[in-house]
Fold this sequence. Notes:
7 helices, disordered N terminus, two-stranded parallel ribbon
Amino acid sequence: MASGKQLTRLGAIPRHLRLHIPQVPRSYTGRLYFILGPGLGDTVNDFRILHEVMELYPDAKAVVYADPRWKGLYELVPELRGLPIRYHPQAPSGELQSKREQKPYYQTFQHIIQEICADTSDSSGLVAVGSFKCPDQLARKEPTIRMKARAIGLSLPPERCRPFLPLTEDHVGEAQQILRARGLIPGCYLAVAPHSFPDKMWPYEAWESLIADLQQSTNLPTLVVGVAGYRP
């Protein structure tokens, strides 16, 4: 069994710091740490876990680590409004992979865990979102949100097992205008976010090849999200 210090060096979260909801009373007033995933999809999935957990522990103090690329989304989540967010270096994208050296996300994650361990050395704190994995997720054909919830003992009903992102009518109207301006019809296009971890990152040429294949096989246009200024 690896020690807490060894786990920290490897970037794993020491077991005693993981939130396990059945064992933590609703009266908990310590810190709850949320390390939001670096990708756009990871982030809105993690919003769901953050929202559900903070409903269970209204007196806890949320401490959130997040990617600065998605700043515009954080103000939409009630639990994050007015909360100081600890921004970490943005994760690499396919667009930038071959243009400059970037710090791998796992190294950033390591640093965050070390910081949390230091934070909790003399006070109460638990990690509620932090790249937890369940090795049987694929065998169970389990979506990521349900796996993230199961990893901390959170029971999610089917209607809540979906990304969480409150939108106003203005936001919906703006999105519809963006789609119309690009000739896209709701429900009749594909969305691709070309971001991932360095060990499985593709260059943009590979994304372009995938999009071309999808368009040929489905006859649907593709909306590339999370990358500004990419050509139509």
